Amino acid sequence: MFTSLPTPDQSGYAETADRLGALVRDIPGYMGEDSARTPGGLAISVAYFRDLEGIERWRRDAEHVAAKERGRQQWYERYSLHIARVEHSHTFRRPTTT
After folding, report:
1. Other CB atoms within 10 A of residue 22 CB
2. CATH code of 67's domain
3. What global pTM score does this model have?
4. Mean of the pLDDT values across residues 56-82?
5. 47 with 33: CB under 8 angstroms?
6. Distance separating alpha carbons of residues 7 and 51, to the nearest angstrom
7. What CA–CA distance (Å, rounded) separates 66 from 60?
8. Which of 12, 38, 67, 75 has its CA 20 to 30 A from that of 92?
């Protein structure tokens, strides 16, 4: 779970995010991601991995490491990262009406 508050300088961010989004899909154990942003700019992304090994592989990926460094230097005022285990998950979807 990654929450962040961006700086005004977001040059290059969208392209990097797109590239990392493509890369992470190739990490064994990656299961998907959900994200949202408030009107004030606070962003939250939740990436799902099957196990800690997948998280560790992603953490060590060279392009991801470089993007994290650029994020600290340019894109983020602050961020928080939390690694947690999902013990239960439930989904609701409203049925479509015809």
Report:
1. 9
2. 3.30.70.100
3. 0.86
4. 97
5. yes
6. 32
7. 10
8. 38
